[in-house]
Amino acid sequence: MVAKLSTIRRKIRNGEKLGFSERARAVNKGLLPSKAKNKKNVKK
């Protein structure tokens, strides 16, 4: 089930823990910063 954006915003505002899919959706929508490393830091 996909969480509604209003639910994600409420959880962020209240400091509640987000589930994996909620966090992914929040990052995708620009509500949270990504924790992904820069491509410059990844060893090949």
Word description of this protein:
The protein has helices at about 5-15, 20-30. It is mostly helical and about 45 residues long. The protein has one domain.
Describe how the helices and strands are arranged.
Elements: H1 5-14, H2 20-28
In short:
Helix content is 43%, strand content 0%. It has 44 residues and is an all-alpha fold.
Question: Can you count the beta strands?
Answer: 0
Oligomer description: single chain
Average pLDDT, all residues: 85
Quick one: overall form?
globular
> What structural category arises from helix and sheet content?
mainly alpha
Compute the number of helices: 2
> What low-confidence regions span 5 or more consecutive residues with pLDDT below 50?
none
The total number of structural domains is 1
CA-CA gap between termini: 36 Å
* Residue share in helix: 40-55%
Percentage of residues in DSSP E strands: under 5%
Alpha-carbon Rg, integer: 13 Å
Taking the sheet with the most strands, its summary is: none
